[in-house]
Amino acid sequence: MAANAIDQTRRMLSLVTYLRERPGAHVADVARAFGVTEAELISDLDVLPLCGTSFRGGDLLDIDTDGERIWWHNPDDVAEPLRLAADEATALLVAARAVATLPGLRESDRQALLRATAKLEAAAGETAAAGDRLSVTFESEGGVFAEVDRAISERRRLWLRYYSPARDELTEREVDPIRLFALGHTYMEAWCYRSEARRTFRLDRVAEIRILDEAAAPPELELRDLSEGLVQPSADDPEVVIEVGAGGRWVAEYYPHDSAEELPEGGLRITLRTPDPASLKRLALRLGRDGHIVAPQDLADSAREAARSALEAYETV
Q: Is 180 left (phi over 0), alpha (psi -120 to 50) or beta?
């Protein structure tokens, strides 16, 4: 089973120390040492250059790889003792206190966070008092994240009520969580017993969640490579043709597509594939006069009917 978010964070923190002591380490050796695939290691290495002691260029980790070996070019620059400014210390204390209250957080992690927070408070002195007047309340997604993370850690099944925007409905599902990941939004990949297939759930669309007593036992599945994005159409998926005007050219930038042919007056004829063509009805409604679905015909008719119903609802109001 894939590591959860907290385990991945632990691994990346250990990776920094490991690489500092082994300049030019081989990718295969490092992956073997951490018990991950080379692809997972490369994914971690893509994140590390965004980390450092500040967002100034010289304070970020200058780590790269040629696919064979890993090079850290500025280990001495970022090894100097960290000096927190007052606003940085306050922000860190507020965030740490808020995370410590998350439901579902493993008790060992909570205690470790509280110990670190106490040390930071002692070091910050009077600055820590300013943080006492501030608080953070997490929205529902934070609680859902904690429950999923706990279920992954304890290998337990989840029950959830999930909103499917393509069908505009709430469904109840039992799932065995596989992993958490973030691509713009935070997602859970899981084996869904309702669909009897692997599914991806966006956490902010989970209306209700509960950890069950049943042990999670998802099938042995190869993890999807998400380097090309969440939506990766297959050649076997149904083909959809959309025509857009100049105001709808953004569709070609946001949706993976097979082709985009130029049309008069700045328009495009976009051909794409999707496992769920019905989900594109919402795109058609969003486009309005800037575009419409051309094929398949049943989807085009369905989109027109949805638009007609929406207009009638407005006229009734």
A: beta
Beta bridge partners of 201: 188
Closest CA to 280 of 250, 302, 311: 302
Torsion of CA 152, 154, 155, 161, to 10 degrees: -60
Q: What is the DSSP string of 102-150?
A: -TT--HHHHHHHHHHHHHHHHHHTHHHHHHTT------HHHHHHHHHHH
- Say if CB 158 and CB 212 are below 8 A apart: yes
Note the pLDDT tens digit of each residue in 259-300. 999 998 889 999 988 877 777 888 888 888 889 999 999 888
Residue 306, classified by CB atoms within 10 Å of its CB into exposed (0-12), middle (13-18) or buried (19+), is middle
Residue 151 in contact with residue 158, Cβ under 8 Å?
A: yes
Per-residue pLDDT tens digits for 14-54: 888 888 888 899 999 988 888 888 888 888 888 887 776 65
Q: Whole-angstrom Cα distance, residue 13 to residue 5?
A: 13
The token pair at 122 is: 């002692």
